[in-house]
Amino acid sequence: MAEKKTELPDSGESTLTVVLAGSVNLAIAVLKLIAGLITGSAAMLSEAAHSVADTFTEILLLTALKASTRPADREHPFGYGKARYFWSLLAAVSIFTSGAVFALYEGFSTIFGEPEEQTSPLVAYIVLGIAFLLEGTSWLQALRQVRGEARDTGRSFGDELRHSDDPTSKTVLYEDSAALVGLLLAFAGVGLHQLTGSSVWDGVASVAIGVLLAGVAFLLGRTNAGLLIGRQADPSLVFAIRDAFNSAPEVDAVVDLQTMLIGTDRVLVCARVDFDDTITAGELERVCVRMATDLRAAQPDVAEVFIEPVPRSDEELRAAVLARYGRSTRPAQVSVDQVSGTRASGEEPAG
C-alpha cells in the first residue's frame, strides 16, 4: 500500500542565504579583479577567480532550489527533490574548475615564471578588507541557517554538516568559509611580496588558495554524490518508523525496513511486515492504509510509504536483509537487529 505526501519543503531561508551570497560574491569579484589588474598580484587574480566561481555556484544553487520544488508528474512520480543534489554537485564542480584550477595555474606561473614587480599594494589591502566584511556578512547568514537546522533536527553543529539532506546552506557555508580563509592567504601573499620584494610569496598564496578550493569542492562533491546515489534517512527517523509499525496491534514483526532520501525533508519508506495471520485481506488493506496515514502524520518528512506483507520465516528474505545490514554496523548505520527491534546479543532477528 502506498500513501503520498504532496507538500514540498520550504526553501525560503535557503533562497535568502543563496541570493545574499551571490550578490556579495559578484560585487567582490569585480573589486578583486580591478585590484588584481592594478597590483599585478597573482593572489588577487586568484581571489577574483574564486569569487567568480562562487557567483556561478550561487546561480547553480538557485537553479537547484527552483528545480527541486517541481511537483511530481508521470515521468517523475517521486518528484524532483533530487534535482537539488544534482545542481549542487555541479556547483562543487564549478568551484573546482573555475576557482581551484585557475588559482593553481596562476600560482605556479608566478612561482616558476619571471619575477613580477608589485604596484599599489594599498589597493589590494583596501579591497581585501572590504571583501572580508562583505563575505563575513554572507558567512554569518549561512552559519545562522545551519545552526537553526541543527537545532530543529536535534543534532550537533558538526553532525548537521555531515548528515544534512539540504546541500544549499552547507555549500554556501563551506564556500564562504573558504573565501574568508582565501582572503587571509591573499593578504599574506601581498604583504610578504611587499616586505621581501619576491613575487614567489604571491604565487605560494595563490597555490594555497587553489588547494583550499579543491578541498572544498571535494567535500561538497562527495556529499552530493552520496545523496544522488541514494542515502538512507537519519537513523533516529528509521528507528521511529520501526517503532511506529511495531506498535500496531496487527503487526507481529517488522521484517525489513528500507528508507531513502528523495529530496530535502522527503523520505521514501519501504517496509516488509509480518502481520497477524488471523486478519482478513480486507482488514489487511485497511491496516496498511491506517499505518501509512499515521506515520505521515507523526513524521512530516515521510513523503511515500510502501508496505508489503511478508512471512518472517522466509529464508531468502532473511538472507537478503542480513547481507544488506549485517548484525553490527557503524553508529550512523542501521543493523538488521535494530530494524527488527531485537537485541544484538543473541535474540534472533525477525527476518
Automatic annotation (TrEMBL):
Compartment(s): Membrane
InterPro entries to which the protein is assigned, alphabetical: Cation_efflux, Cation_efflux_CTD_sf, Cation_efflux_TM, Cation_efflux_TMD_sf, SLC30A9
One GO process term, biological-process aspect: zinc ion transport
Membrane protein topology class: Multi-pass membrane protein
Coiled-coil region(s): none
Keywords of the record: Membrane, Transmembrane, Transmembrane helix, Transport
A Pfam match: Cation_efflux
Biased composition (Polar residues): 330-343
GO MF assignments: monoatomic cation transmembrane transporter activity
Region: Disordered, residue numbers: 329-351
Highest taxon above the source species: Bacteria
Keyword Transmembrane helix recorded: yes
GO cellular component, one term: membrane
Matching Gene3D superfamilies: Cation efflux protein transmembrane domain (1.20.1510.10), Cation efflux protein, cytoplasmic domain (3.30.70.1350)
Domain Cation efflux protein transmembrane: 19-228
Protein name as annotated: Membrane transport protein
